[in-house]
Amino acid sequence: MSERFGPEKRLKKRRDFERVFLEGKIVKSEWFVARYAKNDVNFSRIGIVVSRKFGKAHVRNRFKRYVRETFRRSHLGGNIDVLIMPTKELKKEFENLNYRELSEALQRFLKEISFKSEKVKL
Question: Could you give the C-alpha distances from 69 to 26, 32, 42, 72, 116, in angstroms and in order?
Fold first, then answer.
């Protein structure tokens, strides 16, 4: 299995984002909010939505890099599209977190999403 995180594993098109926003289920944790919906491809894809309120561009970009790397390493099973959004609580703590801490929290969150998507017919 390739460790590559190519463009096919990212949500890029507006219609894909809109579909997940409109049809997707919501899961919340202390640091993340996610929407997920079934897709027509044989692998999972991720989209990241970060508001300007989260911080300056370099902070938002670091968050997105952390999320993409964690998603790449997690090998989320199934065929679901996931949109990840940070919460206000994460905004307050993000500067004091390192990659490992955020990654562990996000991996637990992604496992919960994977479990719920398998349990419930989307």
Answer: 22, 16, 20, 5, 22
Q: What is the domain count for the chain?
A: 1
**Cα radius of gyration rounded to whole Å, the chain:** 14
pTM for the predicted model, two decimal places = 0.87
User: Does residue 117 belong to any structural domain of this protein?
Assistant: no
Per-residue pLDDT of the chain (122 residues; tens, 9 = 90+): 456 777 788 899 999 999 999 999 999 999 999 999 998 888 889 999 999 999 999 999 999 999 999 998 887 777 899 999 999 999 999 999 999 999 999 999 998 888 877 765 54
70 burial (CB, 10 Å; 0-12 / 13-18 / 19+) is: buried
CATH number at residue 48: 3.30.230.10
Classify 52 as helix, strand or coil: helix
